[in-house]
TrEMBL record:
Protein known as: Glyoxylate/hydroxypyruvate reductase A
One GO MF term: oxidoreductase activity
Domain D-isomer specific 2-hydroxyacid dehydrogenase NAD-binding, chain residue ranges per copy: 106-275
Keywords: NAD, Oxidoreductase, Pyruvate
Source organism per UniProt: Sedimentitalea nanhaiensis
Record has NAD as a keyword: yes
Superkingdom as given in the UniProt entry: Bacteria
InterPro entries assigned: D-isomer_DH_NAD-bd, NAD(P)-bd_dom_sf
Length: 310
């Protein structure tokens, strides 16, 4: 029987996904009808972006799963009208993009590149940075993205510590977990990378108390979510010199308002939520594989635990 797949995302996303998603569904051997409009009662799967117009799932009476195009699910996970499995995006392109953004900015902070990029002022600055082996990096969040970034940074020689909710093992990475492990993870971090999801339990995880656990002069990279940081506390820590620099990709309000203090702060670099993005070709294969699994009665990949919020 034909599987009806509703593509529910912004119109420009349809333009970029239509061809690769069609190809991936064909390659997966699925008999499908893929469209941006169906009578809700006829839809089997929704390929979904939380900023689409579909916010009430009640009329989708035969829906089997919602397949999120984004890694983050904070804007759909609490939707009370959703009663079918919700899968989030884990995609090779998304992971590779995050590895490249995190590695690039860790190296930038480690090598203190900004001093030379923005300090073309006739001053001969001779300070030689340490080797990676002497620059401990901590990653909060040892999920798909955190583990991949940790492995790459460890491969470059950085001593990497990873922290998450539960115990994880990553080769060449020191891992710790839970509330008791957080102090140990932060106390050594000269560069801290935030790759946690936005959940009630992670809100403001970087606050005055946890910033104080970091060594003086630590650098912070946030490609996770804006809610992870108490902005007032971070600005105070930057102003006091306890935190040396921050590169922030994600914010509580996006786009970051033009009058936000981060834009003008001399120790802050703002990037506009571009750390990584779902890539159409590889993401389409993930979506097609999940629909194939659904039709074959196999477990879905990348299911969200809605009680945990990620
Ligand atoms: P993931 O695989 O779900 O991993 C999440 C990690 O966070 C896991 O290690 C998890 O612990 C840990 N965690 C969750 N709640 C926690 C808590 N309360 N205390 C301690 N650890 C906790 O997610 P992912 O694919 O790596 O993505 C991480 C986040 O990156 C996404 O949620 C999204 O917000 C962000 N992101 C940003 C961009 C961008 O362009 N800026 C792009 C993609 C994703 P366990 O290992 O114990 O489960």
């Amino acid at each position: 029987m034909t599987v009806n797949i509703l593509f529910a995302a912004k119109a420009e996303r349809w333009d970029s996904y239509r061809t690769p998603l069609t190809a991936a569904l064909r390659a997966a051997g699925i008999d499908f009808d893929l469209r941006t409009d169906f009578a809700p009662a006829d839809v089997d799967y929704i390929v979904y972006a939380p900023n689409s117009t579909v916010q009430d799932f009640t009329p989708y009476t035969r829906l089997r799963a919602v397949l999120n195009l984004w890694a983050g699910v904070e804007d759909v996970v609490d939707n009370d009208t959703l009663h079918v499995p919700l899968a989030r995006m884990v995609d090779h392109g998304l992971t590779q993009g995050m590895i490249e953004w995190v590695t690039g900015h860790v190296l930038r902070h480690h090598l203190e590149m900004d001093k030379h990029l923005f300090g073309q002022d006739g001053v001969w600055r001779t300070h030689v940075p340490p080797l990676a082996q002497d620059r401990p990096v901590t990653i909060l969040g040892m999920g798909e993205l955190g583990r991949a970034c940790a492995a790459t940074l460890a491969g470059l020689g950085f001593p990497v510590t990873g922290w998450g909710r539960t115990a994880r093992t990553v080769p060449d990475v020191t891992t710790c977990h839970g509330a008791n492990g957080l102090d140990a993870a932060l106390s050594q971090a000269q560069i801290l990378v935030l790759l946690l999801p936005d959940t009630p339990a992670t809100a403001n995880i970087l606050s005055a108390d946890t910033l104080a656990m970091l060594p003086r002069g630590a650098h912070i990279l946030n490609p996770g979510r804006g809610t992870l940081i108490d902005d007032t506390d971070l600005l105070a820590a930057l102003d006091s010199g306890h935190i040396a620099r921050a590169t922030l990709d994600v914010f509580r309000t996006e786009p970051l308002p033009a009058n936000h203090p981060y834009w003008a702060h001399p120790k802050v670099t703002v990037t506009p939520h571009i750390a990584s993005a779902t890539r159409e070709t590889s993401a389409s294969r993930v979506i097609a594989e999940n629909i194939r699994r659904g039709e074959a009665g196999e477990p879905f990949l990348n299911l969200v635990d809605r009680s945990l919020g990620y």
